[in-house]
Amino acid sequence: GELVGAAIADDDVSAALEARILAQVATLVRPGGRLVYSVCSVLRDEAEDVVEGFLASAPEYRAAPFQSDDV
């Protein structure tokens, strides 16, 4: 198989894309289901800020602590 990746050089564009992906995927979670959001970025605007914005716009979701036995 092939794995094709692309890097987005603009952090603001990347964060906006992450936010859109998260909002879209959230519509596919069954009631009572769990949505896990993970990024490979240490930038606040691509991680914590995206989560905070999502939670502010989606009151049916809440942040939950991650525990290794959840995987």
Secondary-structure topology with pairs:
Blueprint: H1 11-26, H2 48-57
How would you describe what is shown here?
The chain has 71 residues and is mostly helical. It is 37% helix and 0% strand. It has two helices and no strands. It starts with 10 loop residues before the first helix and ends in a 14-residue tail after the last helix. The mean pLDDT is 83.
Mean pLDDT rating: 83
Give the topology string: H per helix, E per strand: HH
What percentage of residues falls in helices of 4 or more residues? Answer: 25-40%
**Biggest sheet layout:** none
Quaternary organisation of the protein chains? single chain
Cα separation of the termini: 25 Å
Beta content: under 5%
Radius of gyration: 13 Å
Tally of contiguous helical segments: 2
Keywords:
mainly alpha, 71 residues, single chain
Concise synopsis of the structure shown:
This protein is mainly α. The chain is 37% helix and 0% strand.
